[in-house]
Structure formats: C-alpha cells, structure tokens
Amino acid sequence: MTLDRFVLLMGLLLLTGTTAQAASFNAPGNDTLQGALTRAAPDANPKVIELAVRAAQCRMAQGYDTTKRLAIIDYSLPSTAQRLWIFDLQQRTLLFHELVAHGRNSGENMAKQFSNRNQSMASSLGLYSTRSTYIGHNGYSLRMEGLEPGFNDNALDRALVIHGAPYVDQNLARTQGRIGRSLGCPAVRPAIAHQVIDALKEGQLLFSYYPEPSWLGKSAFVNCARDTVASTAGSNTSRN
Fold it and tell me: What letter would DSSP give residue 65?
C-alpha cells in the first residue's frame, strides 16, 4: 500500500468514526440520550431525566457550545438519599451518584421551599451553567450562573456554588435523620468535591428539580418547544 493510499484510508476511517459518533449521540428510539441516561441511572426518576435532557438540549439550541456533562439534582428526594447524578453526555455514562445538601431554609430532611432571593438561605430551582473555579471559605469551589429569570438568576449574587462540606455525610444522616444543610449551595462530600467540580467546571450544566408548579409552568427550558430543541451534537458556536 502506498503512503498516499494509506493516508486516504486513515482519513476515511476517522471521518466514518466521527459521523458514527454523532449519529449514536442522536440515535432514535431506544438509543436516545434520554433513554441512555435512564439506563445508566436506573434509580433516578425517568421523568426528571426527561426534563433535564430537554432543558439541556434547549440550552444548546440557543447556540451555546455542546455540553459534555450534565448534573441532575432531584430535590423531591430526602437529603439522606443520593439525589445527585452527574452524566458524561458524550459517553452516555454515569460519573457520580452522590449525596447533596439543600439550603437550611428549604426544609429539614425534605426540601420543600425554594427561593431566588438574596439572604434567603434556600435552594433555587432550574437550569444552571457552571463558570470558573476558585478557592474560598469552603475551599475549592465552582461558581454557577442561574439561567432562569425569577427562579435562579440571582445565583451569582447569592454566591451559590458547588463546594465540599463535612456536614454532607452518611453517618450524620444516620444519627440525626438528615445530612447538614447549606446556605443554598448544592454542597457535596469533601472526599469527592474536587473531582465533581473538575467534571462540571467551565460551561457544563446542572438541573435542579422539584415538582414546584410555578417553576414547572413558567420555565422556558422545561417548556421548550420540541421543534426548537437542539440535537446533542448541536452548534459549535459559543456565546459563553
């Protein structure tokens, strides 16, 4: 085989592989992204995964970079349950399944109240895009931008960030019936905080869910029209 022919063959193989990857990312039927994530996290609520995927794809339809990672928090579950899932959207795999805290004014073991107000010390609902990391009072932390006006768009002003906290602890959950609570941040175990933050930093998405009627009815991402939802291999145009 000549060198020119070898180079041509390798180019065709790479092109075929790229095309196949894009096709599998958007494959129909049982191979949809939603279906793949549901299979990867069988203990998650499939309806919550459906809403999270719809929200993420709606965000991509607006012309932002394709998201590689998606975190889902289901605040309808108790704090003693592992209610945080983090997915690799390209590989369609589950990276983390963890405990996560809610704000102290959102409730005890069950989160029931949510707020977008400064000083509310409550969690906020909706879709977030992550920003940069920094070292703060709680160590290595990750800033989040709330994307939903009226529901979480004060996140930066409120300094709602992902960070590690010693009160996110399964032993504590057993002794007091709940894990500790934050000032509204989705805090995680210190042992995995750095890994979680590195997986989610710089433009990934986090979807914070609770069956709250006002948010479910008004969220532009939850109610994104299906014909405007981007494919998960969508535009490479960045506006971040």
Answer: P
